[in-house]
Amino acid sequence: MFHALANPARFLRLMAVIRPWAAGVAIVGLAAGLGWGLLYSPPDYQQGETVRIMYIHVPAAWMGMFIYAAMAVASATALIWRHPVAELVAKASAPVGAVFTLICLLTGALWGKPMWGAWWVWDARLTSMLILFFIYLGYMALWEAFDDPARAGRAAAILALVGAVNLPIIKFSVDWWNTMHQPASVLTLAGPKIHPDILWPLLITALGAKGYYVWLLTLRVRAEILSRQARILRFAAATDRRAD
Amino acid sequence: MTRKRKRLLAVLGLVGGLAVAAALVLSAFNDNLVFFHSPSDVAEKQLPADRRFRLGGLVEQGSVKKDGLNTDFIVTDLRNSIPVRYTGMLPDLFREGQGVVANGRLDAQGRFIASEVLAKHDENYMPPEVAEALKKSGQWHEKSGDHNKLVKPGS
Known about the structure:
The complex is a heterodimer of chains A (244) and B (155). Chain A contains seven helices and no strands. Chain A has 244 residues and is mostly helical. Chain A has one domain (46-180, 196-236). Chain A starts with 7 loop residues before the first helix and ends with a helix. Helices cover 30% and strands 26% of the residues of chain B. Chain B has a five-stranded mixed barrel. The interface between A and B is large, with 44 and 44 residues.
């Protein structure tokens, strides 16, 4: 299975099978989760209606970290097993993860002003999330910094692995240090600290966002594979002309 | 050893080495990475009197006194407490029993003169009816479990 996927043609066929299912999960999950959360879920006893920002903020934060973790795994696969498609999966994921991270930072600022009294504070959670955003930008810039895709891919994969050290720092920052950001509400040893009427729409939105990522990934990886093939054909054509 | 095995070990070594380096750096800078100090930290660590820092804790029940734009209250971690004076508008979530983070410095009398007060939100989310029902049935624990960073263990 693993080695079979190194064949781009077979990988493209698998992507084509997954695509409609991922699109279905994305559309149903995002519509149901956001519709429920933004319109029908109860307000919070302290935050009132402002709690609804969370239905966008929290899934976006999870996606920013989940996509980075996927990129790190794909980059390790590309480095160790020279898996040609894994590198393209990582490359295709980066802009999606960067946008989710940006959405998390912006909605967090919109929530912070009315709740805390500040748009931004330099605490460990907010700062480590901002660093994640910069790592995404650096990763994308590094791909563009080389003419040779093989060298660009290797450099970017190493950067992706180095940046993975930030993921546990983001997750546990609220436990290790005093932070302005509240501690974990969903993934805690004692179980979720969110009432089910608020938790369910959140989880459904998060599932929809995962589907949306996979859907985009099937399209973006296909585009990457096709543009690689186009590049090879262009080179071959140029060589042929010279041989004539 | 195959080349694949070598590359696997190199990648594991890279990530492992970085994790150790990050852990060492973060623990060395531990005091600078905390966003605020609790009243007990202030009592134990003897922070220099003229230094600005952030003070975090719970607003003590019954301690808030407003006089025009001036607000006086006590920040406590249930073991030590520090009186605070703040001049200005308070955030909506500011109230007694709530977590706050104040930025300012101690004056000669040991009172904390704050130039900024932020309200800290906790990790509990529930509809108002549920909060009401918990209070009625006596199962409401004022800031128990949550705010565990604001309350010193053993207090």
